[in-house]
């Protein structure tokens, strides 16, 4: 079981510019919602509309992600609230635009109570047909609920992701995104053992890792060292398992499993881990020529 005190923790702070950036994102969410509904109205295909709803959620979420990152929001609750608010604005704007298009560009509804009454009427009669039928009643409500979850849920997840994507250096007032280069390793580690060893400060455990040439298609273990590029006094360690597979169409599928994420390192531990990783990198580069087939070297 992880010890949360050993990992990076959000400070709960945010930039004074965050509220202004939120207003900009609000306008963007409204525009995205309107575009989604107008496109859906003119291209009424069920499968395409499903993808458009997903795209709307991701686009609104992108606005939330930008707000959190640019606004330096280090508060998960505020990030979630921002994502929910932006998602609801995008959703409501999409409903308003859809009713506007459906009415021949004559009726623009801004009142939520009026919108609810209009949606009740639409649910009773149905407003579109698919597969030879017209959804009404609870079926239509279910469809609208799925649409709402895709837009609001996508927006919320991406906004929260912006808050959790990387640590923040409070001293230099910036996100820490610099990742030092490191070799990749064979996927032969035990997850719980790895967590226990690294949390205990036994970084010699990394010497047991076996490096493997980068670019290979099978799964591997990735070790990342992060540090603030300005003060170089905030250091973190990530370890993740990268599983690679191929689907029936031979399309590459990649799945990342976080083993250790943003483990805090002091300067001495950081230097020790970096030396270990550098030694692995040198060993991998030395062993690489011998791994090349003789016919390839002859060519």
**Rg measurement, Å:** 25 Å
How does the major sheet shape up?
A: 6 strands, antiparallel
Order of helices and strands: HHHHHEEEEHEEEEHH
Mean pLDDT rating: 90
Sum up the overall morphology in one term.
elongated
Q: How helix-rich are the residues, as a percent range?
A: 40-55%
Poorly predicted sequence stretches spanning 5 or more consecutive residues: none
| Record field, number of beta strands | 8
Given helix and strand content, the structural type is alpha+beta
Strand content: 15-25%
The total count of helices amounts to: 8
Query: What is the total number of structural domains?
Result: 2
Can you characterise this structure?
- The protein is an alpha+beta fold and 299 residues long.
- The protein has 2 domains: 4-165, no CATH class; 174-298, no CATH class.
- The chain is built from 8 helices and 8 strands; from the N terminus they run H-H-H-H-H-E-E-E-E-H-E-E-E-E-H-H.
- The strands form 2 sheets. Strands 3, 4, 5, 6, 7 and 8 form a 6-stranded antiparallel β-sheet that branches. It has a two-stranded antiparallel sheet with strand order 1-2.
- A hairpin with a 7-residue loop joins strand 6 (220-227) and strand 7 (235-246).
- The longest helix has 28 residues, at 137-164.
- The radius of gyration is 25 Å and the shape is elongated.
- The chain starts with 17 loop residues before the first helix and ends with a helix.
């Amino acid at each position: 079981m992880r010890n949360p005190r050993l990992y990076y923790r959000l400070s709960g702070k945010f930039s004074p510019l965050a509220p202004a950036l939120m207003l900009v994102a609000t306008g963007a969410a409204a525009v995205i919602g309107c575009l989604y509904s107008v496109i859906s109205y003119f291209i009424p295909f069920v499968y395409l509309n499903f993808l458009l709803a997903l795209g709307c959620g991701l686009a609104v979420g992108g606005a939330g992600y930008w707000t959190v990152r640019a606004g330096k929001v280090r508060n998960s609750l505020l990030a979630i609230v921002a994502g929910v608010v932006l998602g609801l604005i995008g959703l409501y704007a999409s409903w308003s635009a859809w009713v506007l298009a459906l009415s021949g560009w004559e009726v623009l509804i801004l009142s939520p109570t009026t919108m609810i009454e209009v949606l009740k009427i639409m649910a009773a009669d149905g407003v579109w047909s698919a597969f030879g039928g017209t959804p009404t009643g609870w079926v239509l409500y279910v469809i609208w609920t799925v649409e709402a979850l895709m837009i609001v849920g996508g927006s919320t997840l991406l906004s929260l992701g912006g808050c959790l994507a990387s640590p923040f250096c409070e001293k230099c007032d910036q996100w820490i995104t610099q990742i030092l280069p490191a070799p990749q390793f064979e996927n032969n580690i035990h997850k719980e053992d790895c967590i226990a060893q690294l949390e205990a400060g036994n970084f010699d455990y990394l010497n047991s890792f076996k490096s493997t040439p980068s670019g290979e298609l099978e799964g591997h273990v990735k070790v990342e060292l992060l540090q603030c590029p300005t003060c170089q006094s905030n250091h973190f360690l990530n370890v993740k398992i990268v599983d690679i597979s191929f689907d029936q169409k031979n399309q590459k599928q990649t799945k990342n499993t976080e083993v250790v994420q943003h483990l805090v390192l002091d300067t001495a531990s950081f230097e020790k881990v970096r030396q270990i990783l550098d030694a692995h990198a040198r060993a991998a580069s030395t062993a690489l020529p011998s791994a090349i087939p003789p016919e390839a070297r002859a060519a």
